[in-house]
Amino acid sequence: MGRRFSFAEWLIRPSPVRGRGFTLVELLVVIAIIATLIGLLLPAVQSARGSARRMQCMNNLRTLGQGLLIYENSYKNFPPGATSNGRSKPLTGAYSWAALILPFIEESALYAGLNPTSGGPAKDATNQPLLRTALKAFRCPEDRGPETWDVSQTGKDGDSGEYILNGGLSNYVAAHRAVAAFGSGAYTSGTDSKVGGFFLDSKTRIKDISDGTTKSIALSERVWMYPAGYMQTSVGIYAGTWAGAGGTINGDASWVQPTSFAPARLINDPTASRTHRSLSSLHLGGGVNAVAFDNSTRFISDNIDHFINPSGNKDPNDAVDSVLEYLISIKDSNPVSFP
Q: Is the pLDDT of residue 155 over 50?
């Protein structure tokens, strides 16, 4: 006969364990909680990755800015925006500021192969294998463009002569002029009050930057192309080529597109033409990175004060009258700090 339990023992006696699974409702609740957590985490992860890519982009600009300063220390002036090598205009190809700083960013062998200071035109067929070199220092990790610039990829036949076809892509362009450069002739002179630090055959010295090296943009960004649907459109932007321009006209306005910038439109304005001479990026939150002549890096918002005149800024005599234009011009006598 089994042992009898007292009433008190019976109350505290453990109940037999019965195994059971989750009900359908419980499973659905768990799945909903996990989905909610993932939904909350994904934006944070994407933001962290975007911040990391933007920081890498800034590091690239800092590397290039350091190359500019080493060049200036060696030659007592910054490299020209593009060099004619003494050839008369129109040119069949002009090497860019980027090609000239190659020895100072650990690309001495590539520089020696191209021989940009005394060799032939930048678009010489013999240079093609070297011109196609993809250089990470010139690529923003946020950009989705190809390794090399190929006119067949865009159908941009009207401007193909300005590019070195099959040249290595560059997302970084130099400050050419505060006001858009259209036409020819007026943009090759250091006496132009609207000029940036880089124009054809320029030799800008530290003392020429009267607005101050900390308050003048040296380099900034241009994206290869906005993806379809981005900002409600898919306007082509087209980044530059690090090596230089395929050809120039009588002035230097045509090589602004592949090597430098003279903004004809607002930053990241995909709704208008001529954005290929302005500034753009695909960074989260908009804006572009920039490096000043003292090699300090800045982030410039899309919302920076930038006045574009009603005619589309096609007047080369348009005034320097907004914050972005003040930051680009090196001698407008109105130095402003980065916002």
A: no
